[in-house]
Design a protein that fits this description.
The protein is of the alpha+beta class. It is 16% helix and 40% strand. The protein has one helix at residues 7-21, and strands spanning 31-40, 50-54, 59-72, 77-85. Strands 1, 2, 3 and 4 form a 4-stranded antiparallel beta sheet that branches. It is flat and about 50 Å long.
């Protein structure tokens, strides 16, 4: 919750250090994974929640969209970067 910390850079630097510590893996076994998970929420007074189209279930849900970029080498998974997205379409009872 500390606003003075650059969390995205902090997580990236820790992940890079951890990746350097694991056993080397051939290049063909390394991949970057982009995951765009929607976390569905329930309730009327949820901060930052908005209506988002969830393509996996084929309808609009109240929630937040989390985008995570991860490094995977068939042995380990490390998050490199993340972002949280919402829409401007809000339910009348939801806080901004």
């Amino acid at each position: 919750r500390h606003e003075g910390i650059r969390w995205r850079e902090f997580i990236y630097r820790i992940s890079i250090k951890a990746i350097k510590q694991v056993e080397p893996v051939p290049l063909r076994e390394k991949v970057l994974i982009a995951d765009d998970t929607i976390n569905q929420k329930r309730g009327k007074k949820i901060e930052l929640a908005s209506y988002i189209r969830d393509h996996t279930i084929g309808r609009t849900v109240l929630g937040m969209n989390h985008l995570v970029l991860s490094y995977f080498d068939e042995k380990s998974l490390f998050p490199l970067d993340f972002s949280i997205h919402n829409s401007s379409k809000r339910h009348e009872g939801v806080f901004s």
